[in-house]
Design goal:
285 residues; alpha+beta; Pdz3 Domain; Immunoglobulin-like; six-stranded antiparallel beta sheet; four-stranded antiparallel beta sheet; elongated; disordered C terminus; C2_dom; PDZ_sf; PDZ; PDZ domain-containing protein; calcium-dependent phospholipid binding
């Protein structure tokens, strides 16, 4: 049996003292058409669930639900409260280009440069499709074995055909400014793993190390943030939020653009306390 198409109302919010404060309403969304909620309102309850103390990810799950279902909101504005009911709508997100936003770092990477050049590495990451085509490359971090790359986005249509379970190549390289670049390590991975895991173990390209020295692996990659997004619905938020701030555009965007469930488990970092479609549906009837 096919899973119900997931819908939403088009509200973007941030955590507030009494619930979730509305900071944006998507143009053309169910919330805008309804007209009952405005930027600055505080959503106190959704479908009878108090939102005080909830995380942004939990709020996203509560607000989402099957297309055609409704969400009842208790809102506060100017010292008074009022109730509204909005019917969730589908959109064209599944036909749009999908992307994953990532903040990543390297941990204890192999040193590829000679002592004369600093004895470290100048690492960067490369994402390759299953066919080996380069899809994205990060900036180079000079002379560092524990680099932190700037937040970036990768086109999932080009990387894996929008298939969250399809394996692709993630490589870590050392930039050589005179000779050919050296590979530090690589791994095969998929989007579901990027969304769930906090650390990834690199391996050598053509061999498995059998001895304690040198280290058995060429290092690890850490995933600080991983958010699944639609193409360009929320580009305007990047003008308002710095990617490097704690209340960043990545966190705000995660409210509205997440994996369409389609019968799969909701990726853990985006699901809060709810783990599967049945739990989600029980909250949105």
């Amino acid at each position: 049996m096919a899973a119900a198409q997931m819908g939403r109302v088009g509200i973007t919010a941030e955590e507030a003292e009494d619930g979730m404060k509305v900071i944006a309403i998507k143009e053309g969304s169910a919330a805008e058409k309804h007209g009952g909620v405005a930027v600055g309102d505080v959503i106190i309850m959704a479908n009878g669930l108090p939102l005080k103390g909830k995380t942004l990810q939990q709020f996203a799950v509560i607000m989402g639900g099957p297309v055609g279902s409704t969400v009842k909101l208790l809102c506060g504005r100017g010292g008074r409260t009022f109730e509204i009911e909005i019917r969730r709508e589908g959109d064209s997100a599944t036909s749009q280009e999908r992307k994953i936003f990532l903040t990543m770092r390297g941990m204890d990477l192999d040193a590829k440069d000679s002592v004369l050049l600093g004895g470290k590495s100048d690492p960067y990451l490369v994402f390759r499709s299953p066919s080996g085509e380069e899809v994205f490359r990060t900036e180079v971090i000079k002379n560092e074995l524990n680099p932190v790359w700037k937040p970036f986005e990768v086109d999932l249509n080009k990387l894996c055909g929008n298939d969250l379970q399809r394996m692709f190549l993630l490589e870590c390289w050392d930039k050589d400014f005179i000779s050919k670049d050296d590979m530090i390590g690589m791994l095969e991975v998929n989007v579901e793993t990027l969304l769930k895991e906090k650390e990834l173990q690199l391996r050598d390209k053509n061999k498995v190390r059998k001895h304690a020295k040198p280290p058995p692996y060429p290092g690890k990659l850490g995933i600080t943030k991983a958010v699944l997004l639609g193409d360009d619905d929320y580009k305007n938020l990047f003008d308002k939020y710095s990617l490097e701030d704690e209340g960043s555009a990545l966190n705000v965007l995660s409210l509205e653009e997440r994996a369409e469930v389609k019968g799969l488990l909701i990726p853990a970092p985006l699901s809060g306390e709810f783990e599967d479609v049945a739990q989600l549906a029980s909250l949105t009837r």
